[in-house]
# Entry
Amino acid sequence: MSETAIRPKLVGPTPLERVRRAAPLLLAPVMALAGLAAIGDPSVWLTLTVAGLAMGLMIFIMASGLTVVFGLMDVINFGHGAFVSVGAFVGFTVLAWLAGWTQSPAVILNLAAVFLAILASMAITGALGLAFERVIVKPVYGHHLKQILVTMGGLIVAQQLIHVVWGPDAIHVARPQSLQGSFIFGEAAIEKYRVFAVGIGLVLFLAMRHVLRATRLGLLVRAGVENGEMVEALGYRIRRLFLLVFMAGSALAGLGGVMWGLYQETITAHMGSEIMVLVFVVVIIGGLGSIEGCFIGALLVGLLANYMAFLAPKIALVSTIALMVGVLMWRPQGLYPVVKAK
Amino acid sequence: MINTLFSGDRPQSRILAAILILIGLALAFAPFLFPGTKPLDTAARICIFIVLVASYDLLLGYTGIVSFAHTMFFGIGAYGVAIALSVMGPGFSAIGVGVVAGTLVSAVLALAIGLFSLRVKAIFFAMVTLAVASAFAVLVSQMSGFTGGEDGLTYRIPRELTPAFRLADFRLFDVRLDGRLLAYYLVFFCALALFLAMLRIVNSPFGTTLKAVRDNAFRAEAIGYRVIWYRTTATVLSAAMASLAGALLAIWIRYTGPATTLSMEIMIDILLMVVIGGMGTMYGAVIGATLFILAQTYLQNLMGAAEQATEALPLVSVLLAPERWLLWLGVLFILSVYFFPDGVVGRLRRRG
Amino acid sequence: MADMLLRLAGVHTHIGPYHILQDVTLDVPRGGVAVLLGRNGAGKSTTLRTIMGLWRASAGEILFDGKAIHSLATPEIARSGIAYVPENMGVFSDLTVAENMRLAAVDGPFDARRLAWIKELFPPIATFWDKTAGTLSGGQKQMLSVARAIIEPRRLILIDEPSKGLAPAIIASMTSALRELKETDTTILLVEQNFAMASALGDTVSVMDDGRIVHAGDMRALAADAGLQEQLMGLSLEEHQ
# Structure
């Protein structure tokens, strides 16, 4: 037959579409420049920008799991904040045990203590994620209203259990020696911990990107977000994949909890549900289910919150809401809406 | 006549009817049945929360929308009255101005949020309202010049509603007839009227359509109902009702602050009350609010006793500590959503 | 009866309140192409989805190579040797062609000879190997979807309207590719509305209407019998002729 009739032709995106797709990437730099213009003083700006990036990346760590879980199985976990809190408490407990290491002047011991704390909290929150998914979320698949209610119930119970285990009071823990204090660049003072947080956040982002782009598991997750049914029809158990992602997301929330706790140096059972407000804002800005969107949204929120905290402290949180409203007016489904093939 | 008053929505269960009558009578005669400041305060809170919870159920149970901004509207109503009373001084005109202003602000804000985010998924609305409500709470606590900040506002209410006002010199069933009694009945009758109004709304053609939209938005849209209009209207109505409940609270406790009106804790309390009472039935609000507030006030004593009784078993004892009552309610809440989503009322109705 | 690879016996499927498949009985002989004809909404796609376990059969039996599969989950059904090309093609548009193929090779690395054969069968697969699948044209996506289904040997392939929305030239090349596939020992259950394509490929044919099988028989007999076609296809195919 007419084999020759197939003229290979690539229907690529039009230039306009490409600009549309790439436009959100410019938002964070634009925000940073606008911040510079509004603040004026470059050294203050530098301090705030690093703080904003640190905050943004920490929020990204916490939000990434939430958004992928939604993309993959259309499940929204309003109890995600519980993992943040539990992670912080576990991490701080480990740091308290390792007080000898954290108070030592040796950088390597300090970092080892932090990494052990992170590891422990990720292990515990990952396991907790397993339990949460099996007990709380699984019975209400496909039912949004019940999901919201039940995961909220899970959050209440988890917060109360934190009180039972760790007591009702806030806990203070100082950062390890080498993460205290600031680097001085000219007139700008940059907290060491923030640089550390930016480092961890970037490494994680790149690792996540690598997993999603280059591993079979990552490909399955991306394929599953678009068309879970087809993934199943190819012979993969998407439920198992989902459970894995849910656990990974919970572990990441735990990691975020440790980092956020060290940032604030005080932790409470409610810290998770408080930070969830920003997490939701980020996830909405990015587009539910989109990891790139989540990353950009997190940077935007982090930067804006820190600039506004300097420029007009009273409306810092309101400004992030305004940002969300603005983005939704521009793109009602967020920066990178996830297209479902159903 | 009773049928008209209750808009034809009968309890449909003898036990439920008995409980409702019991609650109604207890609230109506609370000052005489349970003398003392604390019981009266509990009764007034129950009245206020019945309205608040019923207005939330209008959204959650009847429209299938989850909002986390309900306390924001509750707070706006309370702050409306509080600010008006602080600025204009104690007087009924201040209360009037505060109520109208608060309700209007709530309605407009609800309209904006509704039009803005109800087009998309229910989840979206839940997340957006959560974010907006938290931002609002922070804003209120920071605008201290206007709202009293974290400390809130303490103000005087019209003298006629305070214990200092004597209605009559004699005592009725050993109860002093003072302004406090008057204030209680103001709260009670307003709450009753608002509740009956909501009962009327959900049993009207509008309410029936809401349920159709909730059960199958796609089909409702196909039949020609403008789903977004119905959802937004329900959101606005519910916000206005919550606001009025807030105004009642502001009058009753003579104090308005973030912790008593805007906090996430109250939002969670409301959720618990709706779900435990029963979603999608106004009577669920009555049962839920009554049970919850009684538990909040008195269960903790019971748990305290249990904690002491189990002192020998450390873990059990910790779990039974009075501060942990929310833990058990949380568990009950999860179980309710799984096993009896129509709550206590649904259970009773099914038993006939 | 001849050796049947797939048998549906008395299958009913409900979707929500709707009773879609009503007592469907269907046989797919081993090694041939069984065609399922019928107009839009007759229940053809639902039949394929029910076989894949994407909808649950509420009654009846589905036997694949003698084993009941109607209570298995979709991944198990797929792994028992059935590949599926859905109506919307199910291409992962965010992934490249290569990645789509890689996920389809469930058992691991590609069989080089098989991949070479597929690239020959569908030249665009080779041309656009590293391109994002979302940028492909409709016909190319359809080829990718079929290519995915055959990257590993499967005993049965379910294909839902491969001609839908495609230009005639592309339909022709798709037909020839499927004919070549037929030469291997793969069995195909093909849902089609394009009678030319259906009759060029089919060995047996079943016609559905309103959730029921209204005719089952030999494809050549149907192709030769204008009266029967008229009677059955009055139901289904006039808009395609």
Notes: Chain B is about 75% helix and 5% strand. Chains B and C do not touch (no CB pair under 8 Å). The beta strands of chain B are 153-154, 166-172, 175-178, 255-256.
